[in-house]
Design a protein that fits this description.
- By secondary structure, this protein is α/β, with parallel strands linked by helices.
- The strands form 3 sheets. Strands 3, 4, 5, 6, 7, 10, 11 and 12 form an 8-stranded mixed beta sheet that branches. The protein has a two-stranded antiparallel ribbon with strand order 1-2.
- The two termini are 54 Å apart.
Amino acid sequence: MIEARHLRVLRAVAGTGSFSAAARELGCTQPAVSQQMKALEQSAGTPLLIRTGREMRLTQAGEALVRHAAGILAGLTAAEEEVAAIAGLRAGRVRLVSFPSGSSTLVPTALAAMRAEHPGTRISLVEAEPPRSVEMLREGDCDLALAFRYGGASGSAADSVAEWEDLVVRPLLTDRLVGLVPEGHRLAGAERVGMAELADEPWIAGCPRCRRHLVEVCEGVGFTPRIDFATDDYPAVVGLVGAGLGVAVLPELAVESVRAKGVSTLVVEPAVEREVVALTLPDLARVPAVAATLAQLERAARR
């Protein structure tokens, strides 16, 4: 294998005409130059230098190698500089995927801080709900995923734990779900309401994972919800409730990101919570730009 350090020595010998002059130029000893040239010739499988009197002359193979060495060493130098810039957060990229309510609450604060502190780092954002966002992380389509899992011993919670067992899981916050009813609803003035009190109501459900968890919670208190409408769009859920078409439960992050017109929010019992986390692969967690973005997401969650 031809090594870059051997190419640098060969160029110095070609330029100066002797091992001793090359050693002075490189700041090393003549035996070290001689040893590296022997190693290079062994790797090349052919002589590269011929001694003529006190000078060294390149063979045809040596001339070819020197001719290519300039481009190889220039490319290597450029690569080293680019890697150093990425390691020092003067460059680099992070591909982030987030679920919608995370995109509108946690992400803007974190990305604004990243741009202020590390303007050379480029961050892109696309939206996807788990488990699709986790699949994107595993498939190499993103570097960092915001996701969530529900607490308790439900099937969906157990599935999430198993799904993430080989990932780096950085907890960000606990997001409580709140009930939404139309403003004129019989329970609109109540501070708290038991889920069982909503057993006969038509329901508006959210994303598939949220929908499945809603059914599990309702069945846990003795009824199966009648889901009339299902949508991944949180403003649509709020709009449907506000129009008197049903009731819903939404995460507080989602309610915070939507102008909730025509609805009343209630504390529901039993308490329903989801854990919001940032996920990445173990190797990616050591990449400086990814680690810095994780830190900013944690700060945004604390705020």
